[in-house]
Amino acid sequence: MTDPHQLQVVNPATEETVATVPAASAADVDAAVARATRAQRAWAALAPADRARLLRRFADTVDAHVEELARLEVREAGHTLGNARWEAGNARDLLLYAAGGAERLLGSQIPVPGGWNVTFREPLGVVGVIAPWNFPMPIAAWGSFPALAAGNAVVLKPAETTPLTALRLARLALDAGLPEHLFQVLPGYGHTAGRALVDHPDVAKIVFTGSTRTGHEVMERCARQAKPVTLELGGKSPNIVFADADLKTALDPFSFLDNAGQDCCARTRVLVQREVYDEARAFLADALAAVVVGDPADEKTQMGPLISRAQLDRVRSYVPEHAPALRGTAPDGPGFWFPPTVLTDAAPDSPAAREEVFGPVAVLLPFTDEQDAIRLANDTPYGLSGSIWTRDLGRALRVSGAVRAGNLSVNSHSSVRYWTPFGGFKQSGLGRELGPDALNAFTETKNVFLSTEGPAQ
């Protein structure tokens, strides 16, 4: 039975309790927002160079604790050690990138008759960030650190299952000298702490990453206050492989197995031109058999467990026991393990082919030509990411223009770089994170006209 006052953090690889954390109530959220409001006023009054200096010091502090943060992530989220180190490093690097933007929040001068017109970028105030469990550190950072750099305070609610790295980041921020209450972390349940944060009248913006269904509810609740919101929601990304592609690179199984497939950008719809379908199937069969699934703390492990028993049951529901499939192996015993799997006989309109499974499961689908590939790629409610593999530059440009997704890679499986904007089309979200304009998303534009014609007579 769930304790409304506590969160139990469970190691997904062993099912052992790692920690018990107090769960924030609506009253706790109210108190945190009041503290954040006071802290934000003083933070915004600092010179941009001083804010940047403190954020760089925060980055240095994170850098000194990358290994500690990574191993904490392994225990609470089941990520492989290599992935967890990347995540901690990504939080550090984004801090440095955002710090540079603090001194470059530029307005503009607009020519107008009768005077001068200038615009200013001003911070929103208190920003609420609701982070998911699949990438607890980097996604919390994407919403929080640009907001801080722009002069805002942040109240972060991590996912119920993965609060530990967020709590540690907040402690490191204080150690680095950031003002008290500027960056607060409130672990809690979505229906209490999360809802209170969304509904709070003194929270100026919500950044939410999670399911499309919950994202719709967040957006509806924010609309009641005309509160801006950024949503990063689900995905069902295509991997479009033309016959002229390098199959071994294009069919890298970790394009859909990274983080045990618990990745909104996972290329779980493997679309392969019919001429090379049989070759692709044979390659994937061998590739899945070679994937090392096991203890995520072991340097040799390539894929760890799913986050929870509930997630394991969800993934199993998409893969009938005797369904035609290519399968790898997974450990027996304690832990939430599911083997790497590629369904080979799923219909293009089946749930496994159109819905977000959020596990190490992909579908292999043939296509005939360029137009057929585009049709299949767009045949989902989502539009977050995807890959296109071909040696034909013209084809790459045509398909990139036709696929409805916010982040596409040609001859690459990369989706996220903190230098470039990230976000989705259709039911995959609203707004953009990261990139050179990230700080602007946490500001209001103020327009000021200065008359040169003297006071009215």
What would you say this structure looks like, in words?
The chain has helices at residues 26-45, 48-64, 66-77, 81-101, 136-149, 164-175, 190-199, 212-223, 247-250, 254-257, 277-290, 309-317, 351-354, 370-377, 393-402, and strands at residues 6-10, 17-22, 109-112, 115-123, 126-130, 153-157, 183-185, 205-209, 229-232, 238-241, 269-273, 325-327, 341-343, 361-367, 382-383, 385-389, 407-410, 425-426, 429-430, 443-451. It has 457 residues and is an alpha/beta fold. It has a 7-stranded mixed sheet with strand order 12-13-14-11-10-16-17, sandwiched between helices. A 6-stranded mixed sheet has the order 7-6-5-8-9-19, with helices on both faces. The chain has a 3-stranded antiparallel sheet with strand order 3-4-20, with no helix packed on it. The longest helix has 21 residues, at 81-101. The termini are far apart. The mean pLDDT is 97.
